[in-house]
Amino acid sequence: MKKWVAAIDLTADRAGFVLAHDLAAATEVMRATEEGASVPVKDRMKELVLFSVSEEYFSLRDKLQIRIDS
User: Fold this and answer.
1) How far is it, in rounded angstroms, from Cα 16 to Cα 25?
2) What is the pTM of this model?
């Protein structure tokens, strides 16, 4: 059950990051909710940074048609 709850926390972190498109804002929310989280904030931040540079994230941005204007 602990792994399932941890996966939910990490998924919520990713969803918030995708919606906000702001790593600083996402980590600020993580710090604010540290007390009730099943995964330590340091580990949550590490996972989010890894996600932010992953092919999965860029593919999702492409599917959502989120692009940086040039």
Assistant:
1) 9
2) 0.82
Q: How does DSSP assign 8-66, residue by residue?
A: HHHHHHHHHHHHH--HHHHHHHHHHTGGG-SS-HHHHHHHHHHHHTSHHHHHHHHHTT-
> For 23-50, what is each residue's pLDDT tens digit?
999 999 888 887 777 889 999 999 999 9
In the numeric block, which tokens belong to residue 41?
Answer: 């904030």
Q: How many CB atoms lie within 10 A of CB 48?
A: 19
In the chain, the amino acid numbered 49 is V
| Residue 61 near residue 67, CB atoms below 8 Å | yes
Which two tokens mark 64?
């959502």
